[in-house]
Design a protein that fits this description.
It is found in: Cell outer membrane. One of its GO terms (cellular component) is cell outer membrane. Belongs to the TonB-dependent receptor family. GO terms for molecular function: siderophore uptake transmembrane transporter activity; signaling receptor activity. With 600 residues, this protein is mainly beta. The protein contains 4 helices and 25 strands. It has a 17-stranded antiparallel beta sheet. Strands 1-7-8-5-6 form a 5-stranded mixed beta sheet. It has a 3-stranded antiparallel beta sheet with strand order 2-3-4. A hairpin with a 6-residue loop joins strand 10 and strand 11. The longest helix has 20 residues. The chain is globular.
Length: 600
């Protein structure tokens, strides 16, 4: 737990007051019959209240254990107060293990599988509890994620990576039931600081990174931060490479003592080589290739460009509550061209390369506003969250392919020319719109019990059209979904809490029925039981949970029309998870052992 800067002064004043009182009572003065010092009146000093603010920031914590999380909660909550399965990759761990991509960070996280679609590592899907994670949150604001985009920006701009396993529909609306990932950015600091790093590694890996933050005026009410990097690396596979450039800048302005405006932008470009694996024998047997073998040519190219712009306004209420409004726009472009294996290896050692050319653009726009406030009921203090959100996602794409090109896979000529595949204008366009109202109340009717009651009303709509002809396609019928969340937490002692939770979510589908109508969204629900613990003054976190997810109304083949689909599929996922992470001994990282999160 991190404290406000006023805390050390408050503690010092309290200690000084107590020491002065004790010293005065120990003077050798005669006492009267009432036991008071003769000639002296009893003086009662005013109470000194010491308060602390929970902060989820991990930068400079020197630990692999998070003190608080924001994923699934909006405001920081200790892990013991969180009725979910949550893992956090702290800034210290990102640095120590040199985890520079979101995929690398999540590979080290309990219950997560990364499915990789290219040799450069830029096309991936994230899976948790048997389901794809369909959205990534940027400071709590969700954007879509799929295998055709780099999952997120370089980890150099993040304070931490938070993973919530299970439905997160209350705060993000539509989403896969397996979970969500929240990427919490680095914030501008008033104290001048910074770092510069240079790296050189195998296969000509080169990386240069700079990070500078500090106050921009004498009072510290205006603060800035910039992060820039270049990362270039080849591979043990011939031709394959990935070159990345990134710039991040943010500005924070204290409009008043309680109101802060944050502005920022990120730009990232990646130029890589399209590599989609090696062929097999016709019967599926793997071939003992040299690990340097590449099934493509030196014309293969893969480019992604991402930008993020945001504005946040925070107002801290007199009663300790918070009002926050966020606007965010994320633009992503992706284009690849190249040959990839389309046939198995035959007796001639030659394979066919299919030439593909694909281009896509996506724009996510989000507006989110919420207020949290404490309130008293029955002589106890409780917490209320109310919010509203509006989001759109517009995507356009076009695809083309060319004839086969032969390549000797055992003696490849990477200079083999590929056919030109020119692309025309975008011929597919979709727009998804989602509106939501959400709320949650945290009740503490007894010292050891906490109950969470929440829900979200979401209106979700999908539209499709051909941007060349302007002819609209079939869209989904707009409808309202209610996504409940209920949970109970019981404090066993000062270290551990038991919890039980139930949550729901839904996922939009693209499959069509025999009338060419898009199917209604899938629905998912989860029941989870677990125990969260904090040990050794919160230097060690442990977690154990069992869960069951039911996902239904999935698209399956229509028995009466094999080319169409109906909503009728059902999937069950169940299991257990355990994790331990943190710091065995107090002290700075590098001088004291850290516990690596153990995956079960």
């Amino acid at each position: 737990m991190l404290y406000r800067k006023s805390l050390p002064l408050a503690v010092a004043l309290a200690c000084a007051a107590m020491a002065s009182t004790a010293f005065a009572q120990q003077q050798d003065t005669p006492a009267d019959a009432a036991g008071n010092a003769a000639g002296n009146a009893v003086t009662t000093l005013p109470a000194v209240n010491v308060t602390a603010t929970l902060d989820a920031t991990t930068e400079k914590s020197d630990s692999y254990a998070a003190h608080a999380v924001t994923v699934g909660t909006k405001t920081p909550q200790s892990l013991r107060e969180t009725p979910f399965s949550v893992s956090v990759v702290t800034r210290q761990r990102l640095d120590d293990q040199n985890l520079t991509t979101i995929e690398d960070a999540l590979k080290q996280t309990t219950g997560v599988t990364i499915q990789r679609f290219d040799g450069a590592g830029n096309f991936n899907t994230i899976q948790s509890r048997g389901f794809n994670i369909g959205s990534i949150q940027l400071d709590g604001i969700p954007i879509s994620q799929d295998g055709n985009y780099a999952t997120g920006f370089d980890t150099a701009i993040y304070d931490r990576v938070e993973l919530l396993r299970g439905p997160a529909g209350l705060l993000q609306g539509a989403g896969e039931p397996g979970g969500t990932v929240n990427l919490a950015r680095k914030r501008a600091q008033a104290q001048l600081g910074g770092s510069a790093n240079l790296q050189y590694g195998s296969w000509d890996a080169q990386r240069a990174e700079i990070d500078v933050t500090g106050a921009l005026n004498e009072s510290g009410t205006v603060r800035g931060r910039i992060v820039g990097l270049t990362d270039k690396r080849d591979s043990f596979v011939d031709i394959v490479k990935s070159d990345k450039e990134l710039f991040y800048g943010t500005l924070e302005v204290d409009l008043t003592s309680r109101t802060t405006l944050s502005l920022g932008a990120t730009k990232q470009k990646i130029n890589a080589v399209l590599d989609q694996g090696l062929p097999t024998h016709a019967d599926g047997r793997l071939i003992d290739f040299s690990r340097a073998t590449f099934a493509g040519t030196d014309s293969n190219d893969q480019d992604t460009e991402s930008s993020d712009m945001f504005a946040e306004l925070e107002h801290r209420l007199d009663n300790g509550g918070l009002l926050k409004v966020t606007a965010r726009q994320v633009d992503r472009e992706m284009e690849y061209y190249g040959g990839r294996s389309s046939t198995p290896v035959g007796g001639t050692n030659f394979i066919d390369l299919q030439t593909s050319h694909y281009k896509r653009e996506t724009r996510n726009r989000n507006l989110d506003a919420y207020v949290t406030t404490p309130f008293e009921l029955g002589g106890r203090q409780h917490q209320l969250l109310l919010g509203a959100s509006y989001s759109t996602e517009e995507a356009m794409s076009v695809y083309g392919s060319g004839g086969p090109t032969s390549l000797n896979i055992f003696n490849p000529d990477y200079g083999t020319p590929l056919p030109a595949v020119p692309l025309g204008p975008y011929n597919s366009e979709t727009k998804q719109t989602q509106k939501g109202l959400y709320g949650q109340v945290q009740l503490k009717p007894m010292d050891d019990w906490t109950f969470l009651l929440g829900g979200r009303f979401s209106k979700y709509e999908t539209e499709a059209r051909n941007p060349i002809t302007g002819v609209p396609g079939k869209g989904s019928d707009p409808g309202t979904k209610f996504q409940p969340l209920v949970a109970a937490i019981y404090a066993l002692d000062k270290n551990s809490s038991l919890y039980a939770s139930y949550a729901e979510t839904f996922v939009g589908q693209s499959a069509q029925d025999k009338n060419q109508n898009i199917l209604s969204p899938r629905t998912g629900s989860q029941i989870e039981l677990g125990i969260n613990s904090e040990w050794m003054n919160k230097r060690i976190n442990t977690h154990l949970a069992i869960f069951q997810i039911i996902d239904k109304d999935r698209a399956i083949t229509d028995p009466s029309e094999p080319t169409a689909s109906i909503a009728g599929g059902k999937v069950r996922s169940q299991g257990f998870e355990a994790e331990i992470s943190g710091q065995v001994r107090s002290g700075r990282a590098g001088k004291s052992p850290q516990v690596m999160p153990t995956r079960i």
